[in-house]
Amino acid sequence: MDSLWWLSLIVLPLAALAGILVFAAWFARRVTDRFVGRTHRWIEEIMETGEAPAAWRSRQTRLPAIARQFLRRSEPEQAQASYLRRLDGLIAYTERSPLMGDAETKEVVLERLDEVYDDWAQRSPGQFGSNLSQFITQGEGLQ
């Protein structure tokens, strides 16, 4: 038994290394899903609905009141500027990312995102929100 003490000097570091590698793989998967997966979900949601993703809209409503007092623009104007800036970032991501598929897929996605960008840029700031509020403000609501 005394002659096997050196075996623990090999096994314990290898077990620790294996644990570190498992943790690193798990962490890398989480980070990738957090950033790349979230970006792709936002692009998909924008393409399907033509509206800002729910995560973007909820962030605008969570802005603390104290911060709103110091903003130069009104909340709707700030939301519109934020949405357009983020959408511009998604367009740039789509153009340069190899994860967006082949050239045809990129072309279709970019075409749709450009349409949405033009639509958002032409809207008045108060028209950003859910599809229902846009539906009602266009005069096609509950009649």
Question: Which terms would index this structure?
Answer:
mainly alpha, disordered C terminus, 143 residues
Give the CA-based shape.
Answer: elongated
Q: Structural class, from secondary structure content?
A: mainly alpha
Could you list the spans in which at least 5 consecutive residues all have pLDDT below 50?
130-143
**Helical residue percent band:** over 70%
Total domain units: 1
Structure description:
The chain is mainly alpha-helical. The protein has one domain (35-137). The protein has helices at residues 5-49, 54-61, 65-69, 75-96, 103-122, 131-137. Helix 4 runs antiparallel to helix 5 (103-122). The chain starts with a helix and ends in a 6-residue tail after the last helix. The relative contact order is 0.09. The model is unreliable at 130-143 (pLDDT under 50).
Write a compact overview of the structure shown:
This protein is mainly alpha-helical. It has six helices and no strands. The chain has one domain.
Topology:
Elements: H1 5-49, H2 54-61, H3 65-69, H4 75-96, H5 103-122, H6 131-137
Helix pairs in contact: 4-5
